[in-house]
TonB-dependent receptor (Sphingobium cyanobacteriorum), 390 residues
Amino acid sequence: MMRLPPYCAALALLPVCQSAHAQDAILDQSLRFTLKRESRAWSLRPAVTLEAPSRARMARLSPVVTNDRVHALNITFQRQRHRLFRTAPAQSIDLRPFVSRSHSLLMTVEDRLSLSDTLAVTAGLQGVNAANRNANVTATGGKERIGARDWLLPRIAITFRPNTDAGLRLAYRENMHSFGETGRIGPMGLAHETYRAMAQNLRPETHRLLHLDADWTPTAEATLGIAAFQGRVRERLSFVDHGYQPFNSGSARLQGVRLTMHHRPSRHWRWSVHYMAARLDLARDGHAREHSLALESCWSHGPWAATINGALRSRPALDAGSHAGNGGVRFEGALRYNLSDSASMPAYVSLSLSDPDPLASAALLRDQTAGPVHAADRARGIMLGVGLRW
């Protein structure tokens, strides 16, 4: 049986003043549906006649439909386009042949199968195609593009949970991120030869991770977890100091461990602590170590919700861009207010302070979807957001 919930499409136009000569149009579309198996169990049903209702007999074999929710195939398509189009007066130079545009297409297929009450398997893959054309404001007129494509990024996980208090999970996944700055923020002014050299040498960032996780819940309010991992980060994407020009800062093999503890003192407040240590074997010879200690606190009451996250981290081993720094304290926070309690059409307003973690080990452990990376995604910033879903 196929269940097709409504798909959602969002069209956002960034506001600009009337005197601006260019506008950035962002079109984000997504489609998601789930295939679930419908099983039929055959059973004998009594045939009751009107003449003798009390003398029922087993005379008919009928199928009984039961919904089997332990097996589901989820398929997602996401398509996003950025286009920088001209709104200059008619007497201006026609720049239509040099329109900057970028697009990304993401496909996700994931299947979950419960083999027993304690054992489950999740397997799937991601496919991504991201490309930029005329990403440079000064090197126009060519068909050079910066892009990456991979339709086979597998992932598989085996989960064993003998009871509700303990669990063990073995997982493997691959991921890819490419540069995707066209039509969003910039500019990136380069000579044509410099831009062509960058476009030919720039490579997408790829991840390959194998990890073993174990968790234990000694009480209803506390959870302990430990994870051992090893993997590889290839062609780590970084950005120049205070700019948007991308470059590859290196590759490394990683192995390490992560410890976590979650505690919920009340239904309105919870906090957690995370410690991670990793060893990196750099592709350019040599070794490095990364470690971080993070403390997070979340509070919610009524329409209000707040999150604070502080971390003490080491110097990044690969990221040499403007946002890497020399280690030290990293701080993030968010405040959100729900304008509507309706489950069918929630609305909210939020204020957040972001400071993404530049450690290669942290990037490897984050389970993000494949796709383009923007310089602003890896920079400190403050964002005011308003959301409405239907």
About this structure: The first helix runs from residue 192 to 201. Residues 1-24, 38-62, 64-68, 87-91 have pLDDT under 50 and may be disordered. The longest strand covers residues 57-86.
